[in-house]
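W.,

You were right to be curious about this one. When I first looked at the sequence I had no strong expectations either way, so I just let the prediction run and decided to look at it fresh. Below is the sequence, 203 residues in total, followed by the output.
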Amino acid sequence: MKKAFLVALALIMAPMAAFAANYKEGVHYTVINQGPATAKPEIAEFFSFYCGHCYNFYKTAIPAIKKDLPEGVTFKQNHVEFIGRNMGVEMSRAFAIAHQLKVEDKIEGALFKAIHDQKQRFTNLDDIKKLFVAYGVEAKDFDAAASSFMVNAQMSQMKRATENAQISGVPAIVVNGKYRIENSSISSYQELQDIAFYLTTLK
């Protein structure tokens, strides 16, 4: 009985191992540093609210990744500043504020919809503040978070992570702080997810 189970397990794992072996450095992913990987496995998305592809990624790929995330693997997001001119920085601040106030689940979608579906033009932080207030955030809470140490620290961390990962286009996925998936080699969101999950097993 035990032997039969092991044979069955081997048959199941064999194609998975073969498939994983097809993921090649320099083709499917790039090693962005020669140092150690993150202490715990993580998948990090880099995105911009001004990126239409990121909006589609938010609606399709991200829910699937979160739903199927392997046990022990964390998912995090980094907003990039290099899209949207000066408002790119303010959108990074908006994302950090939403995270600090624990309203990112509704604000992230609201900002994407406002920009891409409603064609709303944000010109300053006050415009962003109005959207937060419309979604139930107290104006005073927004103001306090906007200039807080935690928000400034998160913005600095996201900018540093973007530079370290050599991100020049979004959406982008970096796994374990060390492996950047090359979108040009990906044929579907499912394949991207498979590669991301595979890379979480690497050190």
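Here's what jumped out at me. The longest strand covers residues 42-47. And, maybe more interesting for your project: The radius of gyration is 19 Å.

Coffee later to discuss?

I.
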